[in-house]
Amino acid sequence: MAGIDAALQEHLESGHTTLCHAWRITRSDGVTFAFTDHDLPLVMEGAEYRADTGLTARALVQTTGLSVDNTEALGALSDMSLREDEIEQGRFDGAEVVCWLVNWTDVAQRKVLFRGHIGEIRRAGGAFRAELRGLSETLNRSYGRVYQKPCTAVLGDGDCRFALDTPGYAEARPVQDVSDMRSFMWDGFQGFEAGWFTRGRLEVLDGPAQGLWGIVKHDRFDGPQRVVELWEPLHGPVGSGTLVRLVAGCDKRMETCRLKFDNIVNFQGFPDLPGEDWIVAVPRSTAPNTGGSLR
Hints:
There is one protein chain. The chain has 2 domains: 6-140, Thrombin, subunit H (Beta Barrel); 170-247, Elongation Factor Tu (Ef-tu), domain 3, CATH 2.40.30. 8% of the residues lie in helices and 33% in strands. It is built from 4 helices and 16 strands. The radius of gyration is 27 Å and the shape is flat.
């Protein structure tokens, strides 16, 4: 095995091995989980790799060149390890995964078998299947600009460069009332015109659902009450008094970028891109060809 240390290589060649797998999952919020398929816990690098999780792995597919390495992790859902509600909330999406082959009698003898991140997770019958994608997965993505009239940037990202903490473009306040984790209501929520947060974000800042967010579908007034409705319900409990942050929405039009955000210098669309009529237009002598419809 290429890259293996001498001690582990000697152990493998002995003909009597004491090997197991160890897994470490690190979520984007910094929470770490450590498991092993050995029947006793292991301690590696100051972390305890638990043995009571039922986590196993299918055969690892490893390839040369730029092909994608992949495998699948199987395990049981429990409050002590991976919880179904946290998977439903997307907290494990894109989490980093490292798998070792370990000599459980001497954990210093180990080799990294797989390093990547979690892809699709499926749940059924109190168990889960997590697709694991290798580091070369990112090489299969398409990159480049799309030529279109609307802006291709996300409000506040490195292309847009708009500062979301600019006064008047974000508002943090406790929720007064909520329905189906999708509609959020406030009395006396003034200072922003109706529709100001449409296409924006609602972010949960505290409570059990902290870190979750949703895209705003409607921002309207219903009598004295302001109603902010999301496209999809939040997959976590949000009750009255929970602190949320509303971020102004952008519809990607040049006029919105100029008038609402005063950020036209960073507009990432092509508003003067000719339409299809211009592309199929032909020369004619009766009138100048302006790119309009042919009659």
